[in-house]
Amino acid sequence: MVRRDRLRRMREWWVQVGLLAVPLLAAYLHIPPPQLSPALHSWKSSDSVGVVGSPEIVVLLHGFPTSSYDWYKIWEGLTLRFHRVIALDFLGFGFSDKPRPHHYSIFEQASIVEALLRHLGLQNRRINLLSHDYGDIVAQELLYRFKQNRSGRLTIKSLCLSNGGIFPETHRPLLLQKLLKDGGVLSPILTRLMNFFVFSRGLTPVFGPYTRPSESELWDMWAGIRNNDGNLVIDSLLQYINQRKKFRRRWVGALASVSIPIHFIYGPLDPVNPYPEFLELYRKTLPRSTVSILDDHISHYPQLEDPMGFLNAYMGFINSF
């Protein structure tokens, strides 16, 4: 009899816990996105016009899972060198639309870049591409189209890559990326449960020990992701990892076969594209490309961790031809 009463009380306790947990979980899953900081508001409305008299144009292609705001620390320096500095948020990122369900692909992102430049009347201009991480793969597809000499495609003057997994065999995705990229039954649960704590704990380790973002900078990154419920499409965006493996020959082949100037700016402490494996394969595959290796403590986000070193490396490349 005592045992039955104990079991009954335990069942009642769990029922009460469940009744309490359901509204709490429901509230948690519908937490509104954070307010945009003044810096993000300013970035959203910033202009792309740079130095008067220069004919040069540079297009900035950002990485995963963040946005074009990744370039804010070198933006002013670029506007002092280029006539137009253009930074877009890819579909599914930052302030762009984030449709779901949707088949996100590198091919679509490359077409969006082309459409944007046509819209700006720049389709016949020679374009410098500066890319990072996910943006490196988009740049590779743009380079492939340029190599094919298809009408209506971009005319690329130069390409500068940075800390992107352009080789599937040397890329080391984070644990959460591995779980999400295959689109299993856990994906919609994990993306809906993702919060600032999970995000910051996952992103911080890809920065160097002395160059990690402040909490306010992490909140800006998270605000960009949460805008338009972007956390719910992260698993769809991560299909680029599978696409990169499937189309390796197309995209690596494009890098290896074009004659335009190509440069790579590398933060060597990057756990995603580890040293020396990545750099050895890069130099073997692209012997004509030049490389800038930043300080030993710079990691996966070199433009944020060492903006002056990154900018100097890029200007050295641009001024070399």
Automatic annotation (TrEMBL):
It is found in: Endoplasmic reticulum membrane. Keywords: Endoplasmic reticulum, Hydrolase, Membrane, Transmembrane, Transmembrane helix. The keyword Phosphoprotein does not apply. The keyword Transcription regulation does not apply. One of its GO terms (molecular function) is monoacylglycerol lipase activity. It holds the Pfam family Abhydrolase_1. InterPro entries: AB_hydrolase_1 (IPR000073), AB_hydrolase_fold (IPR029058), AB_hydrolase_sf (IPR050266), Epox_hydrolase-like (IPR000639). GO terms for biological process: acylglycerol catabolic process. It is a multi-pass membrane protein. Residues 57-307 form the AB hydrolase-1 domain. GO terms for cellular component: endoplasmic reticulum membrane. Coiled coil: none annotated. This is Mesoderm-specific transcript homolog protein isoform X2. It comes from Lipotes vexillifer.
